[in-house]
């Protein structure tokens, strides 16, 4: 990957957190990354600690985290600017236009309180029939979809 970035002067790279972690761990001072200007992180949460370490080591590369689900719409939320991403580490940005999202209690389906646990559901103009009142949920009893 590093050779391809250098050879083709890649400036924008979609990546998952384990790739970003390996860049931090093994690429200190690596000139092969000099063409990179932006990395978008998807597929899993990117911790504040890893975000901070990446930004310290590669200050010329914008790092933005996003959230989405391939099985529904792709991107749901993303940071539109590097300044916004830096101001909110550990977050996946703002909802894109036309999206609504809420956290609901997995037992009752009602809105969860700030102290409660729940699952993220979302709705958008083009999702068609996706459940009650068109709210789309990926909850299946597995903990990956639980927010607390």
From TrEMBL:
<protein>
    <submittedName>
        <fullName>AMP-dependent synthetase/ligase</fullName>
    </submittedName>
</protein>
<dbReference type="Pfam" id="PF00501">
    <property type="entry name" value="AMP-binding"/>
</dbReference>
<dbReference type="GO" id="GO:0016405">
    <property type="term" value="F:CoA-ligase activity"/>
</dbReference>
<keyword id="KW-0436">Ligase</keyword>
<feature type="domain" description="AMP-dependent synthetase/ligase">
    <location>
        <begin position="2"/>
        <end position="109"/>
    </location>
</feature>
<dbReference type="InterPro" id="IPR000873">
    <property type="entry name" value="AMP-dep_synth/lig_dom"/>
</dbReference>
């Amino acid at each position: 990957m590093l050779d391809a970035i250098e050879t083709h002067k890649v400036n924008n790279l979609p990546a998952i957190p384990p790739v970003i972690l390996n860049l931090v761990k093994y690429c200190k001072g690596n000139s092969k990354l000099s063409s990179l200007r932006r990395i978008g992180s998807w597929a899993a949460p990117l911790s504040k600690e890893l975000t901070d370490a990446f930004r310290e080591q590669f200050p010329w590369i914008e790092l933005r985290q996003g959230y989405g689900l391939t099985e529904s719409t792709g991107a749901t939320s993303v940071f539109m600017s590097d300044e916004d991403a830096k101001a909110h580490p550990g977050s996946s940005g703002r909802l894109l236009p036309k999206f609504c999202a809420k956290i609901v209690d997995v037992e009752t389906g009602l809105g969860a309180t700030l102290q409660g646990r729940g699952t993220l559901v979302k709705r958008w103009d083009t999702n068609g029939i996706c459940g009650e009142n068109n709210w789309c949920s990926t909850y299946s009893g597995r903990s990956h979809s639980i927010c607390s």
